[in-house]
Design brief:
14 helices, binds NADPH dihydro-nicotinamide-adenine-dinucleotide phosphate, alpha/beta, Aldehyde Dehydrogenase, Chain A, domain 1, seven-stranded mixed beta sheet, Aldehyde Dehydrogenase, Chain A, domain 2, 2 domains, six-stranded mixed beta sheet, single chain
């Protein structure tokens, strides 16, 4: 099926006249053709969004809440029919991951709806008792939403719903790998009653469509989730125009396995934290740091957990993950593993392609910590496993990264857990869990090269509103 752009709520053919194929990573089948937008299409979308911004922003909070709640109800009732097959085909999601995304989308839309009523201002003291100072929060105007391929529904929802709740219009540029999910998402918001001019979707490629969108003078703010490399380019472009960009970028999260942990239980948690969606999760715990006294027992338990991972049909509920998004991603992961092994690391398990774009669950013991396998994002089903002498050493190893998105500590000792939580430099730390955790209210974001700003609940609406100081003099003729 061929899909046009959505501009101001209408299906509009691209001015470029071009379309491109969307390919399912598991089957290699073409599942649709979508418009390949260029700079003129972006221009049309942003201009339309500027028209929509005023009308949407001037609606009462209750009216914005109503639209987002209606959207949540549509997903709750029809989410499987609308999204399930497409999430499996377009992004190679296992059915359990696709269902998680749909359920989380309902949660995010409801949470965002609530935020529409909570754009609190404040007052603050003034030394002159005849003067009153207030702070208002106001929508920014038009937010460019540039989203990645790995969780194309739930991440897009998080990135678009909170700015909308705050009264902004959005122009969405989804990943070229997963544009169909974004078009369906926009359709459901329109069905829920979003004014047409408040949402547009420009599908296309990063350089041809994402670049012009980021650089467009009609954009007031950018919400970007993706790789650190692209995020830096988007951030630089935003600064050139002196407008804010909320950047959620890559990760290389550590999970600490401390000496008091049950090795089997820890192995199951760690495996889930790295192999969910084949490691294509920004918060995947791709660095496993185990106290040396537990290393042999834990390694054996993790190897056994990996060997039990079922990788069958994506529609089989037992299947834990499927293919990586494309051949380039597979080659990157395999090259990182091969290089680490060639430099002296031990392959504990995995290391090969199972079929097509699916790589076996892979664990590499003690890689050289200067190599890309340790230092760079793999975004595949591979983790490094290293030993630490004690808690201090484990924390130091966790902090030996340019990234700082999430971290986890497996221990029953809350003092050890809290020490690690205080000392690890990352946007979140989870004790007794793996590092991939979601909560629609939580501030998600990173230290260091993992990003700028936070998203989720009120943290999002704060990012996507301007703060204005208003003061009043009660004196006649006051200056
Ligand atoms: P990319 O950085 O490759 O792409 C992200 C988005 O940016 C895509 O829509 C892409 O379009 C677009 N883009 C590419 N070039 C430009 C440009 N010059 N200007 C504007 N936009 C551009 O990320 P991936 O899609 O590969 O997603 C995986 C990455 O996302 C991983 O690094 C992962 O860690 C990160 N991520 C971070 C999360 C977080 O919360 N911190 C959550 C999920 C993922 P196109 O697809 O056409 O290239």
């Amino acid at each position: 099926m061929q899909r046009d752009l959505i501009i101001g709520g209408e299906d509009v053919p691209p001015l470029t006249g071009d379309y491109f194929d969307v390919v399912a990573p598991e089957s290699g089948r073409v599942i649709g053709r979508v418009a390949r937008a260029g700079a003129l299409d972006v221009d049309a979308a942003v201009n339309k969004a500027r028209e929509g911004a005023v009308a949407w922003a001037s609606l009462a909070p209750a009216a914005r809440e109503k639209v987002l709640l209606a959207a949540a109800d549509i997903v709750a009732e029809q989410g499987e029919a609308l999204f399930l097959n497409n999430l499996i085909d377009e992004s190679g999601s296992a059915i359990t991951k696709a269902r998680f995304e749909i359920a989380y989308t309902v949660d995010l839309l409801r949470t965002a709806a609530g935020e529409a009523r909570r754009l609190y201002g404040e007052t603050f003291p003034n030394d002159n008792p005849q003067r009153i100072s207030m702070v208002f929060r106001e929508p920014m105007g038009v937010v460019a939403v540039i989203s990645p391929y790995n969780a194309p529904l739930s991440l897009l929802t998080k990135m678009a719903a909170f700015p909308l709740a705050a009264g902004n219009s959005v122009v969405i540029k989804p990943s070229e790998e997963t544009p169909i999910t974004a078009l369906t998402f926009a359709g459901l918001l329109l069905e829920a009653g979003l004014p047409p001019a408040a949402i547009s979707v420009v599908t296309g490629f990063g350089s041809e469509c994402g670049g012009p969108l980021t650089a467009h003078p009609g954009i007031d703010c950018v919400a970007f989730t993706g790789s650190t490399q692209t995020g830096i380019a988007v951030g630089i472009e935003s600064v050139k125009h002196l407008r804010p960009a909320q950047l959620e970028l890559g990760g290389k999260s550590a999970v600490l396995v401390l000496r008091d942990t049950d090795p089997e239980a820890a192995a199951a948690i760690v495996a889930q934290g790295i192999f969910t969606h084949g490691g294509q999760i920004c918060m995947a715990n791709s660095r496993i740091v185990v106290e040396r006294c537990l290393l042999d027992e834990f390694s054996a338990a993790l190897k056994s957990a990996c060997e039990k991972i079922y990788l069958g049909d994506l529609r089989d509920e037992r299947t834990q993950y499927g293919p990586l998004i494309n051949q380039r991603a597979v080659e990157k992961v395999l090259a990182q593993v091969e290089q680490a092994i060639a430099a002296g690391a031990t392959l504990l398990t995995g290391g090969k392609v199972l079929r097509g774009l699916t790589i076996e669950p892979t664990i590499v013991l003690e890689p050289d910590r200067s190599l890309p396998l340790w230092r760079e994002e793999s975004f595949g089903p591979v983790a490094s496993l290293v030993a630490a002498d004690d808690l201090d050493d484990a924390i130091a190893i966790a902090n030996d990264s340019e990234y700082g998105l999430s971290a986890a500590v497996l221990t029953r000792n809350i003092q050890w857990g809290m020490r690690a939580a205080r000392e690890i430099k990352s946007g979140s730390v989870h004790i007794g869990m793996h590092s991939f955790q979601s909560n629609a209210l939580a501030p998600i974001g990173g230290y260091k090269r993992s990003g700028l700003g936070r998203s989720g609940g009120r943290y999002s609406t704060e990012e996507f509103t301007e703060v204005k100081w208003v003061s009043v003099s009660l004196e006649a003729g006051g200056r």
